[in-house]
Every structure is written in C-alpha cells, then in structure tokens.
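This part of the workshop introduces the protein records we will be handling. Getting from the letters to the tokens is the skill we practise here. The record below serves as our worked example for the rest of this section.

…
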Amino acid sequence: MPVIARHLMILGRVQGVFYRNWTVETASRLGLAGWVRNRMDGSVEALVQGEADAVAHFITLAQNGPPAAKVARIDATDVPVEALNGFEKSPTA
C-alpha cells in the first residue's frame, strides 16, 4: 500500500471542542503520522500521512470529529510525503 500525505483544512465549529485531541488519538490509532493545530481564523489545520486507505478512513472520520464538533467542510490537498514519526499537536498558527 503506498504512503500518501494530505494537508487538511477543517472548517466549522472545531475549536474548543477537543478536535485536536481527537485528531491525535484517532490518527495515532490508525497508524498515521503528522500534526494538527488551531488556526487564528477558527479552523483546524492538519497534515496526515500514512497508508492511503488509513488516510482516506481518517478523513471520513474527521468529517464528524468528536461529539461537540460540527464540521462544515474539509479541504484536502495532496502534499509530498515527509519524514515524520508519530502524530502531535502543534502551536496555533
């Protein structure tokens, strides 16, 4: 299975609802690498990398996120694969 990477912009009610914690837990459980951070505009940004099926499954799950979230839209863009280990929360950008 090929390794792919996607840059995600997650829009909606996604801050203050534990979306980043949920992302780290879910991505780690799926064996994905990358990072997630809040954006000053109220969105959440993530880089998700791993086997294509796992990345696609993560994006499907991310459309709901944690119980208090209300995701309006996820914009996903293909990006080059990087040398990443693990999944972490990054500082707000």
In short: The chain has a mean pLDDT of 97.
